[in-house]
Amino acid sequence: MMTAKATPTAEDILATGLRNRWYAVYPSHLVGPGEMKRLVRLGEGWLLFREPDGTPHMIADRCPHRGARLSLGQHLGDRIACEYHGVQVDGTGTVVSVPGMPGCALEGKRAVKTLPLREEAGAVFAYFGDDLHPEPVEFTLPDRLADPETSHFLNYVEWRTPWRFYIDNVLDPMHGAFLHRKSHSMAEGESTARFRIRETDRGFFFEKTDQRGVNFDWVQFARTGLDWVDLEIPYAAFAGPGGPFGIVGTATPITATESAVFHWRTRRVQGWERDVWRFLYRTTIEERHWVVLEQDRRMLEVMPPDADTGENLYQHDLGVVRIRRMFRAEAEQQAAALAEAAAAKAAARTGGRAAS
């Protein structure tokens, strides 16, 4: 985990997550009105809390007085009182009261970092900008989640694996024919294939050239302020009426070796078919989907931290290679810009001292 004062390197950023984008941080229903939850996201500690009316806030889990964890304090409705000395901080990061010394200079000061939030599709999303990009970029939900005719369920897990490994796993459709070959939805199709990359205006598709609509035959990677993946798997008749089963996924780094994984299980159904699908999902299908997720988790969690180095890749891995190059290039750009800004700031300080 990088220190607060250090200028992050490209490796730091790759390990704990690219900045200047939105991330899903927590399922909405797990933090109710008047509740709070400590979270670690992108290698830093945060406090997610709701006011009694349900308004969410996400602030750094660090009291501006002595650095104690605000998450150990008391929820006072629109503010949190630090347990150490009672300093009260509201959802804007402003110190609203210092009970031990009323009227001191700390009161009224916006002294705690906060994150812009959006709440959509059953999840809280936060914008993580670096020092050069504090204002949030435009955020658009993935297509399936924005479609009012598509029904969805959010599945949330935390895995002891780097977030990059999750992305690699999804950009590798061929693993479905092997790791998930006994799955209720991925038992069909060929175990050999050729793949291609098809560019879009917001990302790319990685897809089989010789099979479609049989197994895990394609995946889309897209950037809409949030980085997400999308795929479709055909359903057997027992799953009820409706079209293919869709999955929208995204991973949020917790630390360099832990990830928060969000999957929305979707189906485009309306009317009575929607009701049947939701009933079947909860009573029959959801348990089977957790089995598939467990297969991925078991595989990824035992891979060594350097598993994505020294590999012997082949044609099936074109999607993995593409996404890794994209992420590394962006991490290097972000690190270089921050280093340049830090150097310019240091030079300005040095020049100011010399002039005086």
Automatic annotation (TrEMBL):
SUPFAM superfamilies in the cross-refs: Bet v1-like, ISP domain
Keywords in alphabetical order: 2Fe-2S, Iron, Iron-sulfur, Metal-binding, Oxidoreductase
Ranges for domain Rieske: 22-126
InterPro entries the UniProt entry points to: Cholesterol_7-desaturase, Rieske_2Fe-2S, Rieske_2Fe-2S_sf, VanA_C_cat
Pfam families: Rieske, VanA_C
Top-level taxon in the UniProt lineage: Bacteria
Name recorded for this polypeptide: Rieske 2Fe-2S domain-containing protein
Lineage of origin: Bacteria, Bacillati, Actinomycetota, Actinomycetes, Streptosporangiales
